[in-house]
Design a protein that fits this description.
Structural class: alpha/beta
Number of strands: 12
CATH topology of the domain at 279-443: Heat Shock Protein 90
Mean pLDDT: 87
CATH superfamily of the domain at 279-443: Histidine kinase-like ATPase, C-terminal domain
Radius of gyration: 62 Å
Shape: rod-shaped
CATH architecture of the domain at 279-443: 2-Layer Sandwich
Bound molecules: adenosine-5'-triphosphate, magnesium ion
Distance between the termini: 120 Å
Length: 443
Amino acid sequence: MEKLDISVLFVEDEDLLRAIYERILDKIVKQLYIAENGKEGLEAYREHRPDLIITDIMMPVMDGLEMVENIRKEDSDVRLVILSAYGEAEYFMDAIKIGVNSFLLKPVETKKLTSLVQELANGILLERKVKDEEKQRRIAEENLRKLNQELEKRVEERTLDLQHEIKEKIQAENDLKELNQNLENRVNEELKKREQQQRLLIQKSKLESMGELAAGIAHEINQPLGGLSMGLDNILFKMNTSRASEEYLKSKIESMFEDIDRIRQIINHVRVFSRDQQNLVDDEVDINEVIRASISLISKQYQNHSVEISLKLCDEECITRGNRYRIEQVFLNLLSNAKFAVLEKSKLTQDVGYTKLIEITSYVNQSVAIIEFKDNGIGISEAHLNNIFDPFFTTKDVESGTGLGLSISYGIIKEMKGDISVESIENEYTILRIKMPLSVPKK
Ligand SMILES: Nc1ncnc2c1ncn2[C@@H]1O[C@H](COP(=O)(O)OP(=O)(O)OP(=O)(O)O)[C@@H](O)[C@H]1O
Ligand SMILES: [Mg+2]
């Protein structure tokens, strides 16, 4: 049989008995302590804390009852067994009061002793097991409690962090909103200012183009005026020589009315052109007609400077929607830039055969009308190509340019859903290309 895993203290003063029981007990339990009287027994108990104490009653120095009484005061769990001789029954009541677990009558049979120890050992081991489990449970509970505490602490910390983060986020969002609002207000203000400026600039540029036109207009009006005065001269002459037939007079007067009409047309044109047209007129505009009208206004001056203008206009109808006077203003701006470029080139070039040439081409590609103004003037350096549409960008001196022509032209073309771009090689050519959506003819 495997030894029981308990410790036993055996107290007996008689040497022989002690030796016999020691042998028996040693075989059945793992740990055995021996004492020879109550005092030694008490000391051994205090030193080793055995699970079970088996003791004789009558012993010198300190008897068994006194010993177990002391021990029971210190330890309510330890198992106590009294060995008593026949005739010692009077102690039983005291023993029971003390809390002794069991009695054995001497002489004790080996079997009885073994089975009692076995029985008590079962209880001790079960109790130990329960205690162990209880201890484990308490440790586990404690660990769980600590874990919970830690978790709670972390949750609390994290909650605080999150609250802080959320607060910061809300603050940041509010800041952003405010910033956005400010920005929006500023953009709106800026846009309003820009719009006002743009209107002023368009008007200003129109007036500048008017300067460009003045000479052309004078020339245009001069022609019909010349016709008128010649017609009147002729009539006067005929009247003086009284050879003026009614038919002759009629035809002369008709042609004079035509001259007057021409002058009226020119004056009307200039009046419409110079009016501040804030509201976009959405008319059908024949692009080729606007090109011709623009040229008719400036061709004389350009001839005076030997600037050749060649036209390659599309055969199809090039009709777009918009304001014809604004488109004309753009064309005049581009022609004025082209003229300046060829005049500059002619000043700089060594080439005696240089011809100042402006070519105007219009053609249709899918649903877009394309108009190109090409000149063989000084061209534009690569560094400037990206800036020429910027307001106030100019390479000309103060008298020759304000730097507004192209930026205003850009605004006008964009307003009419078109596009304007540039292509140039310095000292060779410049092409300003305008794309306008073709108007879908109304049925
Ligand atoms: N056909 C061209 N050839 C060479 N350079 C050009 C041509 N068209 C425009 N540029 C360049 O673009 C600049 C800007 O042109 P823009 O018409 O906007 O202003 P500007 O002609 O200088 O002055 P403004 O037209 O206001 O009198 C010009 O100064 C010039 O440097
Ligand atoms: Mg210009």
